[in-house]
């Protein structure tokens, strides 16, 4: 059995605890948390500690705290030369204190407190300083997911930025669609099949080939009608800029 | 049996021909097309005509041509007082020639030539001038879809604008994500589970509640790191504007 200690009790930490609970090769032997109440429904409370000096010996320490706290937490660990990883998409491997062996274990997904996720489909991006540590990380990742990737620091940074576009920004466009529906007394439900199909389409078509709509057709009449319709200035500004961006891109073909 | 004549042979017309072929209450008795070769794999070629004077008598005429051509096509019909509808999200019902009874039959979905769609889940937005025509349109729509909606002209216009945001613009953000992956030699596949989960999330959560990421957290450190990373000016401009838009919106809470 591979022994893991998880440091942190936020969204990602909680989903990891649940995912490892189903694995036969992994045991979460301890969780560090100052907020015991957030996780005592997920793990035996005797396994929870709030004292860095009390951390058990393990094969792997997963620091899953806010980006800003990773460096500080890693320097507070009271041991040396063990394998310590963080779970962040945007923090460099070298932010971890160098008294331990460093690595990254980044599950690229959006986690919500109230929504279960199927961890087996989540890509896990792995990085380490040496090959034997990488093998351990890969074994741990493969015990909970079918999709593991060797990703270096620069690639991980690029994935994190790309993820902001395809997740955070996309969700904001859903929000604007919802706002327009509310303002015009139409149910947002009417748009949901379109939202799903738009996502499903790029599983098999490249987004460039999947592009449709007035911008790529350069249908000036429709674009003007839409801009007339959008009295909300913020919505109109986004409409213009995204239309221009689609058209610029079309020309690069 | 309800007899339908479809005028046009583009993407939407083709998908309608296929959907009605499975319906037991509807028969497509004729299709008008000047490009016979685009549809003769879908329907008996004897049912295809390219002559407006040759159009058969039917309960419903569906004009499914480009937005700009709808008005002109409707005025070329050589009969009067029959039910004639178009399939556009952005064209007013009154663009149809008033010698016939007018209506709208707008399937809100993105149609690609090479990708089959399950019509049963596609919302169909209906509008007509009188109640008995509406009942017929509803019967026709329900024979191919579970989701039919009574939507007036203004509501349809708003749905069309909202659809540009949640479909065309969202797809463009997928494209930018893909570009970033290509530039940094990472597979776009890594992002696909995230894309699907982001879409699935808003089926049960409102987009406002589903919003995550550096913008809504006002995580200035990460936002600056991302802007440093984005050397492509167009990508950086979109990143800034979408970040500002998310933050403005958060404040309205």
Automatic annotation (TrEMBL), chains A, B:
Signal peptide: none annotated. Residues 122-246 form the DUF2520 domain. Residues 3-86 form the Pyrroline-5-carboxylate reductase catalytic N-terminal domain. PANTHER family: CONSERVED HYPOTHETICAL ALANINE AND LEUCINE RICH PROTEIN (PTHR40459). This is DUF2520 domain-containing protein.
